[in-house]
2-furoate---CoA ligase
Amino acid sequence: MLDLGRTFLQSVERSPNALALVDGELSLTYAQWHDIIVDVADGLRGLGLAHGDRLLVVLQNRWEMATLHWACQFAGIVIVPLNWRAKPEELDYCVSDAGAKAIVYEPVSAEAVMQSPAAQQVPRIGLDVAPGRSAGFDSLLTKVAGRANSDADAHAVADDYSLILYTSGTTGKAKGVPRRHRQERAAALAHVAQNLYRHGECTLGVMPLYHTMGVRSLLAMALVDGTFVCARRWNARFALEAIARHKVTCLYLVPTLYHDLLGDPAFASTDTSTVTKLGFAGAPMNDGLLKRLSAAFEPQLFVNHYGSSEVYTFSIDQDATKKPGSAGRAGINTRLRVVKLDAGTPDDFADVGEEGQIIVDLLGDEAFEGYWNRPDANAKSLRDGWYFTGDTGYIDCDGDLYVSGRVDDMIISGGENISPVDIESVLSLHPAVDDVAVAGVKDERWGQRVVAFIKRREYVDAETLDAYCRTSDLVNFKRPREYVFVDDIPKSPVGKILRRKLSAGEYLTDESNGESDRQRSNETIQKQTEINKE
């Protein structure tokens, strides 16, 4: 199998003059970008990084970040991308755990770098005159006298490590997920196939390049000689302007970002007609948002992708609105099954319709082989050749997978196992609900009680929502016993609901009495209700 450096060379050789990268006013063809990538790869070697060494990068989605990713693939260096919002102790842990030989960062992440003792022991390449740097990014682009000119070929093979992704777990220390070139390429090829990408696609590069979704978008565009439009920090208005300006053809986002796009006042006046393919991952999308997106974009393809950093693809549903909530079936490189919640082996199958834990075959082409320096995590998650995901779900009578949440998110109330996702899907369809999350809160009688946290689009009260749930197909024991109206739903940087914060009371309540909203909401609610009935 080709390594990733040679994968990029394919695009350079096929389409040297095709537009490859856009960042603000900077536009680069594949030939132009390749020249810069080779220079940066040469600069990293000149800095003392050798084949197999790790480079920690703490940058937003800017052209330098995308360039460093590819330069590492050419040089055989392992890139370790980290959240640019990382706290000093998080960064310090990752520098030490990964054994990073150098760090690249920018002003927004400079404080964390400067407060990390481990970071002070290695070269620090700072962009935009970042404080605390030992060299500037330009030093990677400048030929050093006496250094042999690098050729344009790749210096890695398919079995070399490509990168280490640190999972953004909500509890405990982050886990490093090392992935080889062949695993990354297989995942990118699957992404192209499963999203039906064609030659010359253009995508918005907004999912962070420290996250598997962002990396996949970057690699997939190279496979189809496409264009990666950098979005340094999420901003719905900028995203809409970029879609219109660059004629973006495909979007791959977490549900939260789609929600923001539709909510921006400029959406209605922005030409988004070039977007024909929508894909989402990272978190379930509620039924209400599915309907709104389908009506707004009228996409030719609407893909629900379910996976992880460890095994990129678990399952795919290429018609997300046909069976809302369905994650479809195993991806083209994957085998999966659902086992009982207390299963000790991968052969303890759950029955059809029975909620259990989702597990994935580690022999799949996209699967990792184990965590970096974490035998404890391996012992918990890797059993008999299968990856125990920690996700709960069930397979219906048609053979389609439904993901109901995390094992840790399961609400146990009065002895019943209750999935938050089922309840969220019902409430999301109410026209006054803008966003919703459900969590378990300690209760002396029930152990936990089901609480729905609601961000309102229009005025609605608890009694109305309770009556709505009573008339839905939601079984009675799953019905929320309390409704809390909040300013916002707490989420991780990649859009995952932080239920532990809700359970712990870490949120701001919506104190508005809603009288003016109540007066103007009737017409909007009636209109949305009719859409939901279609």
About this structure: The longest strand covers residues 433-443. Residues 514-534 have pLDDT under 50 and may be disordered. Residues 212 and 309 are 6 Å apart (CA to CA).
